[in-house]
Design brief:
With 326 residues, the protein is of the alpha/beta class. It contains 6 helices and 19 strands. The longest helix is centred in the last third of the chain and has 13 residues.
Length: 326
């Protein structure tokens, strides 16, 4: 049982981090991992359908990313608004934190923002002199490793084509590859998990069993539950879909429609009960996402695949290439 943080590390050149999406979503490369034979294939995303069988069902996360990033009027403070907690009150992250202690004020669109409370994980509860919609006029919260400001292209491309339920502060990136044409060729169902602050939280404990995930809200409709129950094999599109499927309540083994939250942290040797195939992107070293995929594929096999992806210069992370684990 590998529970040391260093067991989930690998070296990556900055040149392999995708800073921009490809001109067309469907043009990503796709590494295919066969768990039974421990072999690797190099294919294209548009070939996904050829690996699926009759009765397979894609399960995708239809959360919609909020334009949650705002700057103060003087551009000295960056806010990432996580959720509205009451009239004129919001939970947010701020940078630099040292300038926004309890009682400190700033302004957005000439509306005064005042820090009321600092939560244990560093988030701020702030109040506004006017109850305004802070997502109106905000920008997409691109991951820090992209290393640039978001622009008009990101408003479209850092959002899946099937995004419907507003509430995420990061995209479910495995879904970014899909076009309407490709999705319409494959049976699929949607669940919702609003990707939250946990996406940005590094694992700080060397023994990963000490890490705690930030709870994220999810929901499963009656229609989705029925379709998932009928599937012969469930193909989870992304780690967020995995966490919904593995966290959801069941009655006598049957998935039921529900809403709730999950703080499920998946790492080896977790035994998957409800996911048969995983479609995912390449993930950061030492991240909970890499640990989840290691549990599904096997840590040694996965790290060998990552080494091969680096050798063949795959594009990494949110705007990067993808992986299908059979």
């Amino acid at each position: 049982m590998r529970t040391q943080l260093s067991d989930y590390d690998y070296p990556l050149s900055q040149e392999l981090i995708a800073k921009r999406p490809l001109p067309r979503r469907e043009d990503s490369r796709m590494m295919v991992l066969h768990r039974d034979s421990q072999t690797i294939e190099h294919r294209q995303f548009r070939e996904l359908k050829t690996f699926l069988h009759r009765g397979d069902l894609l399960v995708l996360n239809n959360t919609r990313v909020l334009a949650a990033r705002r700057f103060s009027c003087d551009e000295t403070i960056e806010f990432l608004f996580l959720e509205r907690v009451g009239p004129g009150r919001w939970k947010c992250l701020v940078k630099p934190g040292r300038k926004m202690r309890v009682g400190a004020t700033s302004a957005i669109d000439n509306v005064v923002v005042r820090v009321e409370e600092i939560l244990p994980e560093g988030e701020r509860i702030v109040s506004l002199d006017e109850d305004v919609d802070l997502y109106s006029g905000g920008s997409m919260p691109l991951p820090p490793y992209i290393g640039r400001e978001s622009d008009l292209e990101d408003e479209m491309r850092y959002q899946t084509i099937f995004a419907q339920a507003p509430g995420a502060i990061a995209a479910p990136t495995a879904g970014l590859h899909f076009t309407e044409e490709i999705l319409n060729q494959i049976p699929h169902a949607f669940v919702t998990l609003h990707v939250g602050i946990g996406t940005f939280r590094p694992v700080r404990s060397e023994d990963i069993t000490g890490h705690r995930m930030h709870p994220e809200r999810f929901s499963i409709s009656i229609q989705a539950a029925n379709e998932i129950n009928r599937a012969k094999r469930v193909v989870a599109v992304g780690t967020t879909a995995v966490r919904v499927l593995e966290s959801a309540e069941r009655e006598n083994g049957t998935l039921i429609a529900q809403s709730g939250s999950t703080g499920l942290f998946i790492y080896p040797p977790y035994q998957f009960r409800h996911v048969d195939i995983l479609f995912t992107n390449f993930h950061l070293p030492r991240s909970t996402l890499l640990m989840l995929v290691s549990a599904f594929a096997g840590r040694e096999f996965l790290l060998r695949a990552y080494k091969e992806a680096i050798r063949k210069e795959y594009r990494f992370y949110s705007y990067g290439d993808c992986m299908l684990i059979l």
